[in-house]
Amino acid sequence: MSINILFAWLFTDHRMDGWPLMDNPLWTVLICLMYVYSVKVLGPRFMENRSPLELRGLLMVYNVFQVLFNAWLFWEVGQSGWFYPTNIFCQPVDYSYNPTAIRAMHAGYWFFISKFIDFFDTVFFILRKKSNQVTALHVIHHGVIPVFMYPGIRFLNG
Length: 158
Known about the structure:
68% of the residues lie in helices and 0% in strands. By secondary structure, the protein is mainly α. α2 packs parallel to α5, α3 packs antiparallel against α4 and α4 packs antiparallel against α6. The chain has one domain (24-156). It contains six helices and no strands. 14% of the residues are buried.
């Protein structure tokens, strides 16, 4: 076993073994690359000769879901430590099976998953032909955030 593999295995949060997207960062990278290709090539090509779609009802449901989901995440993060006295400078990661540590781990994981749900923002822009909102910064931001979050969620969750 090489030193890099040993290092990664030693510092992996094994409580997340077997969770979707957590066993290998390759899936996160592939999904992000598919997102970028879809919103920069496939989506615009698909909508090229079509009228913009009217998505008012779907957008309302999506936005209500996002508000409720993120409010729940805020509550979970708060209940797993932020609403209580903690060391704001440096707090060790709790890798135990303490209920609070497990709650923090779940909140971190669902925050990670929410970054994939956020891809729909761009899909809706494309389907509504709001191409001016699909900027390079927007696509890069959404396309790399899950990749950059993966190590924190997999190795330092909580």
